[in-house]
Design a protein that fits this description.
about 80 residues; 7-stranded antiparallel beta sheet
Length: about 80
């Protein structure tokens, strides 16, 4: 597993579910494996974030997140 934690362009489907994203070329999401909301360290000003663990059509597994109520996405993790 490698932590990236960089902004990434994500195309979403209804309900803001990731459909594809750009990382070393276009990655097409085949399946959302899991999703959850992390409360964040509110005392340090961190916002809640919605996290998605996805599998792509190329067989890769990734974690993407966005801060709740924001449209900006980040690629958090790339799994080996």
């Amino acid at each position: 597993m490698k932590i990236i934690d960089k902004p990434v362009k994500v195309v979403t489907r209804r309900l803001k579910i990731p459909h594809s994203f750009d990382y070393r070329g276009k990655q097409q999401v085949k399946k959302v494996i899991d999703f959850w909301v992390e409360a964040g360290e509110w005392w340090e000003g961190n916002l809640e974030r919605v996290v998605y663990r996805v599998r792509t059509t190329g067989g890769g597994m990734f974690e993407l997140y966005r801060n709740k109520d924001e449209e900006y996405w980040f690629l958090y993790k790339v799994y080996d």
